[in-house]
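Co-fold these.
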Amino acid sequence: MTSPAPVSARRDLTDAPLLVAARGGTPRHTPVWFMRQAGRSLPEYRKVREGTPMLQACLTPELVCEITAQPVRRHGVDAAILFSDIVLPLYAAGIGLDIVAGTGPVVAEPVRDAAAVAALPELHVEQVAPVAEAVRLLLAELGETPLIGFAGAPFTLASYLVEGGPSRNHERTKALMHSDPATWHALLEKLADTTLTFLRTQLAAGVDAVQLFDSWAGALSVRDYREFVLPHSERIFQGVAEAAPDVPKIHFGVGTGELLGDMQSAGADVVGVDWRVPLDEAARRLRAANPGSDPVVQGNLDPAVLFAGEDAVRREVSRILAEGTAAAGHLFNLGHGVLPTTDPDVLTAVVRQVHAESARS
Ligand code: CP3
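Predicted complex below.
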């Protein structure tokens, strides 16, 4: 593993609601941002992306800066999230993969045995230098708005590499895990190294918070999560904490109601919750799993509810704000990413409502 330059002077955003809430303090209003806020729901995004393939766009600093800033300008969200993709560091490291429209990431040669794992290249900092450059451009562009960096967690990355693309049942991934644990752990170790190099690069460039996406971890039993996944994600959070002790760490997955406590104990400051578990229940589970902890949660409006009309959206936002008060802190978000056909004006209205209803004088 190669290490990026030491962490540069991070911006002092002491009062930024997102950072205050993530650290368990009392922000002036509940912060709100949306997973996938930068992207296909925005006409201004479709316009600037036209003609540029996704992975190439992720390695073009000016484009990343523009796309990342678009939802901040339009919606007034409390954070920007770097425009990238979880497979970008794998691509940058030289693994043959592409993002295919309408499908998602597709891997040329799926990784299914010890030889393929041994042959996987590791990521070098220079290979993601354009991402570091994009972060630097963004810090100048965003003013007081925090920038969230992110990476995919080893299990979710492994699922794409082993299956060869998106998967409903993750059967080849689980087969490797159970039939050849040594190869499985070697694979996750390599992926954790890559993720850590990618996150350290973003931290060195100055991101204000990080989110680890283990989007598909909810496919696992608690037992399998603990044995085959948790130690690797834990190592990533430790590495982030060592590189940047004050930077809040968010851990997110879909369908992870049974895993919330473990996802917190992996080393997260904030646990992402999808729409299936109410935030007050999520806070209860986190306290039960880690006694003495004061959990901070992120979520959890069902992205499909954004299609249900103004009244329904308002009711759901109010409910979630009320349930979020059961935790020591709440970062308002969706339970998963913005769907492509979402009306952007509905997102703007959610931001206004969250700010108005949660304002503290
Ligand atoms: O859809 C868009 O907004 C346009 C750009 C795009 C992204 N990813 C942005 C992205 C495209 C075409 C992809 C490809 C992709 N990558 C897909 C298919 C997307 C689709 O539905 O067409 C998938 C499933 C991936 C893999 C992936 N990328 C995962 C599992 C995650 C974690 C978040 C999640 O949805 O579970 C990502 C991260 C990601 N992809 C982000 C962005 C802007 C970053 C995080 C964010 O903004 O929330």
